[in-house]
Specification:
single chain, 9-stranded mixed sheet, two-stranded antiparallel sheet, 6 helices, 13 strands, globular
């Protein structure tokens, strides 16, 4: 499947076309910090002052659904949320993204804790995280369920996660439910409930009462249906999926190697957002600390910053 040319539309009036600043975490000193909701138990963000309204608003992270053709950079984008990150690597491709990695098998014990290591630098050594992204290599649907069980317990170090990808994740669920047999009509209703629950359970980790995540990202392939490029999933899930997330974007790979995430409405692509126009129409995608541009981390910071000022 080939890439499709997209115009890079300017951001709405008053919004930057590139991130002005990246959010920071204890392991990344020197960048401005985005404060959390009052009462959050994690130490990733500094304390937020009590808001002037009678009932303080709860700060909340973002859910993303990103679809694109093969090799467009979806996995790299999914690996750009606040660290430490978790990736459910269902396709076996996340190992090639730029971050420092470790692995975790949820069937064999608790997730690893992020430590530090000293690296050589100009002038003096630097202390950096010993890993940024933790991979769970998913070979069957049971592994997804085991990882979710730990995430839902709140006993983990992660600030963001990515499911890479829903397209193949649905295949793992079908393998688990019917094996190599034909999927009958009655099976599709059950599969819709199983996959819908999987997506909503992971999305709802954003509002976990003890250890909420700051971003949850779902990756999918893309296909043409009813005159639009839409996320590549089977059955009725394709109708429900866009309603489950805050931001749905189409990732376009340009001939010059740059990538844009189309978020605004478009007649040819299923895209959209419910963050009140706080993100550009088609932000140029980068990678934290390596390529200038927008990341999941930067988009989260932008939305929270605009929410505070709004």
């Amino acid at each position: 499947m080939t890439s499709h040319a997209l115009p890079v539309h300017p951001a709405p009036t008053g919004q930057p076309t590139a991130p002005q600043a990246q959010p920071t975490y204890p392991t990344s000193p020197g960048r401005p910090t985005v404060p959390p909701a009052p009462g959050r138990s994690d130490s990733t963000f500094h304390a937020h002052p009590v808001l002037s309204s009678p009932v303080a608003r709860r700060r909340q992270g973002l859910s993303f659904l990103v679809h694109a053709p093969a090799k467009a950079g979806k996995s790299t984008f999914g690996d750009s949320g606040p660290q430490p990150r978790l990736i459910l690597d269902i396709e076996g491709t996340a190992v090639w993204t730029p971050s420092r990695k470790t692995e975790w098998n949820p069937r064999q014990g608790a997730p690893p804790q992020q430590g530090t290591r000293v690296t050589a630098g100009y002038g003096q050594p630097s202390v950096v995280p010993d890993w940024e992204t933790c991979l769970v290599m998913v070979r069957d649907a049971t592994t997804i369920a085991e990882a979710y069980r730990v995430l839902n317990s709140g006993r983990h170090p992660f600030n963001s996660m990515s499911v890479d990808s829903l397209t193949e994740g649905q295949q793992r669920v079908i393998d688990n439910e019917v094996g190599i047999k034909k999927v009958e009509r009655d099976n599709w209703g059950h599969l819709l409930r199983v996959m819908g629950l999987l997506v909503r359970q992971h999305r709802d980790l954003l509002i976990h009462p003890a250890k909420p995540l700051w971003s949850v990202t779902f990756i999918a392939g893309t296909h043409m249906r009813d005159g639009k490029w839409r996320p590549l999933v089977q059955g009725q899930l394709q109708d429900y999926l866009p309603y489950y997330v805050d931001v749905e974007g189409y990732l376009n790979a340009n001939p010059d190697g740059t990538r844009d995430l189309l978020i605004g409405p478009h007649p040819q692509y299923e895209t959209g957002e419910r963050v009140g126009g706080r993100l550009p129409y088609a932000p140029r995608i980068g990678y934290p600390g390596r390529v200038d541009g927008w990341s999941i981390e930067a988009m989260l910071a932008q939305v929270l910053r605009e929410s505070d000022h709004g």
